[in-house]
Amino acid sequence: MIFWIAGVAGLAIAYLLGSTPTGYLAGKLLRGIDIRQHGSRSTGATNVLRTLGKWPALAVLLVDVLKGVAAILFARWFYPWLYTLPSVTPPAALDPQTCVSWAVCLAGLAVLLGHGRSIWLNFTGGKSAATGLGVLLAMSWPVGLGAAAAFGAVVAVSRIVSLGSMLAALTAIVLVCGLEQPLPYRLLVIAGGIYVIVRHRANIQRLLAGTEARLGH
Questions:
Q1: 29-49 pLDDT, tens digit each
Q2: Are 44 and 129 in contact (CB under 8 A)?
Q3: Structural domain of 68
Q4: CB neighbours of 37 closer than 8 A, spacing ≥ 6?
Q5: Residue 217 lies in a domain
Q6: Within a domain: 68
């Protein structure tokens, strides 16, 4: 029982890491505004760029990526550590390697959920693309770099960040299925990629209508 309670607590920590409202705090600290009332009403780096400027956006982007990295690194440390505690008795059928793989999967989903549905912002937040990139880089750097490259290429050509984010999510799904990765990692990337795309549903409507904003406009 202690093992499962500790496991849930670990996922709660991953969620809280993700729920740190970086863009919201930037708006409050720099201009005393609620960024959710400006621009696209998102707390992500793109809306920070349009509302607060380049350097705040870069800082928010970096922190949001690091939130994803931190959640995965924490899961990889915390769950093996549980196996070393004499007071904790893991299920006999659950070997440490399998446990860590699934823990990474669930922690990745928890940090994405925290970013998009922050408890500190009445369960609103960003679209989880930057945090998702951090998860990918910490979980499997080839998949993360491939997704980042797809994002960069699409944004360089189209100047549309939302399009780049969605195509990066699709690229990550293709790469994780094509490369040798544990099943939990594949499920994480598929579920996380779908989540990121669903979070962009308003952007999809604007893309289809030809009204989606471009960088520099």
A1: 999 999 999 987 889 898 999
A2: yes
A3: 1-209
A4: none
A5: no
A6: yes
Contacts of 119 (CB under 8 A, 6+ apart): 15, 16, 19
**C-alpha closest to that of 52 among 169, 102, 61:** 61
Write out the two tokens for 197: 């795309």
Confidence of residue 97 (pLDDT cuts 50, 70, 90): confident
The residue with tokens 């598929």 is: 190
Structure tokens at 189: 């990337």
Structural domain includes residue 214: no
pLDDT tens profile 169-215: 999 999 999 998 999 999 999 999 999 999 899 999 999 999 988 88
Tokens representing 180 are: 């040798």
Alpha-helix residue ranges (DSSP H) falling in 117-140: 129-139
Nearest to 83 by CA among 68, 103, 63: 103
Closest CA to 135 of 76, 70, 198: 70
Do the domain assignments include residue 14? yes
Q: What is the pTM of this model?
A: 0.91
Which of 171, 168, 146 has its CA nearest to residue 158?
168
Domain count, the chain: 1
